[in-house]
Amino acid sequence: MGARFAGYTPEAVEACAEFCDMLSFNIYRPRVDHAQWSFLDDLGKPAMVGEFHMGATDRGMFHTGLVSTPDQEARAAMFTDYVHSVVDNPVFVGCHYFKYADEPLTGRAGDGENYSIGFTTVVDGLYPEMVQAAKKVSAEMYQRRSR
Fold it and tell me: 64 vs 2, 46, 61, CA distance in Å?
């Protein structure tokens, strides 16, 4: 699957495409803009989002992570739009959300990240807006992709 690029140069991506079956990228943005990723169209390889997330601090931890939203409803809407932007791009074959549960308030080992980005809190409480958004977008993505 390649290197799961967090940063890249066009030369590195082209070299990866020569030797890998799939290209993968961490894309921490509100959505995957096809125009920005159109350079992948001519490489002849599928691509996947290895990591993305969005956070809010109206409930849960005190840091929104790398992509922030004002509240859980906006986070669910951005999640839906993000997944749609991947499904609607013919080069991309999937995306992986980082991560299932919020990170610990005191920070994860190694770097101290304590983002409010999960589908669940650190005590297994759900963010219902995110769960409902994931159910809805998952139920419609195959039909949407086949359009």
Answer: 28, 30, 8
47 neighbors 40 (Cβ within 8 angstroms):
yes
pLDDT of residue 6: 94
| Region for residue 64 given its phi and psi (left: phi exceeds 0; alpha: psi -120 to 50; beta: otherwise) | alpha
> Which sign does the torsion angle of CA 138, 141, 142, 143 carry?
positive
Q: Kindly provide the residue ranges of all beta strands, DSSP E only, lying in 3-138, ordered along the sequence.
A: 23-26, 47-52, 92-97
Low-confidence stretches of the chain (pLDDT beneath 50): none
Domain boundaries, the chain: 10-146
Tell which CATH classification among 2.60.40.1090, 3.40.50.150, 3.20.20.80, 3.30.420.40 matches the domain 10-146: 3.20.20.80
